[in-house]
Amino acid sequence: MRNTILFLALLIGVSASAQKLGKLIEKNDPDKLQAFIDKGGDLNQEIQTEYRDDDSIYYTHPIIFATVSEATESLKTLIKNKDKIDNYSEYISKAFVLSLSRKDPEIADILFAEGPDVNVECEPCHHASAIMIAASTGKQDWYFKLKPMSNLQHVTPGNQNLLHYAASSPNENITKDVIKIEGLDINMENTEEVTPLAFAMMNIYQPNLFNEMIGHGADPMATKDLVEFAIEGNNLDALIYADTNDLPIPLWDWNDYSSSYLLQYCVFMHDGPDGGLIYSSEQDEFVDYLMWMYINSAKELENTEEMWDPVYNANTFYNLIDLSLEFDNLPLLDTYFRLVAEVQEVENAVLVFPKKYFKYAVKAWGDMEIGSLLEKYSINTDYSYWY
After folding, report:
1. In a domain, 184, yes or no
2. Residue 3: its pLDDT value, please?
3. Are the CB atoms for 134 and 142 separated by under 8 Å?
4. What range defines the domain where residue 336 resides?
5. pLDDT of residue 44
6. Could you tell me which residues come within 8 angstroms of residue 214 by beta carbon, excluding any fewer than 6 positions away?
């Protein structure tokens, strides 16, 4: 019993010491951290952290903790006391990989000066190497600096190669360089059956990357769920490829709210690089193309037993597109009225155009502009109908 009590007391003491070390590192006060070290503070104890993407609690080395916390002065102090740190080179190398995903550029410079192994796998980064992180984050200077000393054929335990990381890069110079590297499988599937081409389809920074990768040997047919990736990424080139090659496109698949999940990606999921919503001309063209796919599909089903579905679904569809009026987007608004006109031609189709959206349109563009669109597409121009 006495031994158990002593063990628990020791465990609590170690935990308190690690917690104190973590707080000192976060405060980024080199004098207080050095005082802790001079009093015999252990630099090999692990600190509790939540630095990964999930909500789990992890324990990590002080050097890793200082890097993730972007505590540059604390990191310098730890490096100054490297003789007190076991397996120093290992942790410096892992920290360097992590530093390439941080905003503060000084951290990577500090760690690189310590001569890290740039080919080490960083477990918190899903076992990616330094050049992989540099590629995915678009750090062009680091990518080309690391290239001569890196294993460019490295494959992670998740079965991802350098192309997976480059295909999601915001930097086209990096991506173009990686595509040309010999020996990389451009059609490699990771453990979740996702290819580099799938990442390219969702890369909002490089809208032409889909066709460019095909030009370098990427096979769209090797990408599972190509249509879903095209829709999720609002990638017009990929959507056109799927349409012209007669790939099955689930236009009439609906979620629990009687709304097309494909359309929800178009209308609701325009994530800008700095957060919030964006609505670019490329996306306007994407939605325009998708709209006409719905129109043509509805026409093909006209007067068939399935007609009631596309009529109902078409109404739901352009109710969703009505939301675009709130984005003050006139080009898309014009396309919307073209769709309304087409759907009206379908037998038994009911015109569904909620009054509140009409009011949004009039407020945004004025009576004359909206009136001319209604007249242009032979839609009921009696304003009393809308109020």
Report:
1. no
2. 47
3. yes
4. 250-387
5. 94
6. 197, 220
State the chain's maximal CA–CA distance in angstroms.
91
CA–CA separation, 138 and 132 (whole Å):
10
What mean pLDDT is predicted for residues 148-177? Answer: 96
DSSP three-state, residue 106:
helix
Rounded to whole angstroms, the Cα distance separating 314 from 131 reads 48
User: How far is the C-alpha of 212 from the C-alpha of 254, rounded, in Å?
Assistant: 33
Number of domains in the chain: 1
**Which DSSP letter does residue 73 get?**
H
Q: Beta strands of the chain (E only): which ranges?
A: 47-49, 58-60
- Cα distances (Å, whole numbers) of residue 50 to 57, 121, 137, 314: 5, 20, 21, 46
Predicted confidence (pLDDT) per residue in 323-346, tens digit: 444 444 555 566 666 666 665 565
Distance CA 37, CA 78 (A): 9
Q: How far is CA 250 from CA 190, 236, 266, 300, in A?
A: 25, 16, 14, 15
User: What pLDDT shows up at residue 386?
Assistant: 45
Output the six-digit token pair for 167: 């295909």
Residue 322 lies in a domain: yes
Which tens digits make up the pLDDT trace of 257-299? 444 445 555 544 344 444 443 333 345 677 667 767 766 665 5
Rounded alpha-carbon distances, angstroms, from residue 105 to 59, 96, 179? 25, 11, 26
Query: How far is 191 from 198, CA to CA, in rounded Å?
Result: 13
Asked whether residue 275 is assigned to any structural domain, the reply reads: yes
Instruction: Say what the pTM is.
Output: 0.74
Q: Are 241 and 210 in contact (CB under 8 A)?
A: yes
Half-sphere exposure of 258 (CA within 13 A, CB side): 10
Residue 184 confidence (pLDDT) above 60: yes
Domain contains 276: yes
Question: At 254, is the secondary structure helix, strand, or coil?
Answer: strand
pLDDT value at 349 more than 70 = no
pLDDT at position 339, please?
63
